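Quick one before lunch.
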Amino acid sequence: MTPWEVKGEVDYDRLVRDFGTSYIEQSLLDRVEKHVGKPHFMLKRKVFFSHRDFNWILDKYEKGEKFFLYTGRGPSGDTHLGHLLPWIFTQYLQEKFDVELYFQITDDEKYMHDRTLTRKQVSDFSYENILDIIALGFDPEKTFIFKNTEYIKTMYKISTDIAKHITFSTAKGIFGFQNSSNIGMIFFPSLQAATCFLPSELKGKNIPCLIPAAIDQDDYWRGIAREIAPKLGYYKPAQIHSKFLPALQRGEKMSASKPNTAIFTTDEPEVAEKKIKSAFTGGRDTIEEHRKHGGNPDIDSAFQYLYMILEEDDKKISEIEEDYRAGNLLSGELKQIAAEKTKVFLKEHQRKRESAKKTFDKFILRD
Ligand code: TRP
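Model of the tryptophan complex:
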């Protein structure tokens, strides 16, 4: 796994060990509950499963020192539900803790990484992706979305402060750069790390940073931002890590070039329904066998969509899970439940996405 490629089945326990992160434990959930009430279902269900220094963020918060949130998007394609997952959780954190969010759009990264992507494509994807972000209900007064190419004047100073401390050999060790890598990509990590310190720089005082993101981005925080922070006099950024929503077809990666592997936010609800119906299941080959032995929700894409993102109701999801394991619920019936939920979600999201066109400029940070 690298920030640019996630292959095969992910062993999350191994990542926690290798990256030296901590599991999200009950004591942490209790602490969250004390401040903001019932924790988000993604926390309880371990969709967000790992963290680094989240306790420290809460220590600071308890002393009246508010943190800010930082997350981002590389605009290399259309938005699918897997992208929305950490953003939905980020919106919850913003709302409950009433904090600012800096949202970085790495149009430079994607343009340089993929030789086949044109400037125009990256710019179009940026716009479309930002509509999806805004549609999730972020606070316009407290949310700052910026594209690197448009905000580079502010970002450049912090990036060069960082870059100055990182040798090519370190960057190579972390990100696997080769002699054939283009030099833009070699500099790029300093830009992704720079946002960790951006509000501190803008406001002239240290502000704690919490990054909700999928765990594949951890190299930037562990390898760069946290190493450099003390040298530049900033706090080390804290992280909270999510798992990946599986592709609808097993063993495939969700991808814009294989539309059947994912539900895109702009899919017609009926198209999404068909995709769910053809998804990989944890059901048995025949109804008789299924009734007798039960299905396996752990590998069932329809179930995972409900569990990880679509069904907030804990009671409902455990009923579905139990019925499926017991063989009372057939995989066709499970898919029907997931398809209905998906259609409702998409209709609502698409409506909000349309109105995001009107509020777009309120969210954008430019030099
Ligand atoms: N590199 C990320 C991507 O390819 C985009 C990104 C920038 C990001 N800053 C981030 C993602 C912070 C998560 C958190 O999608």
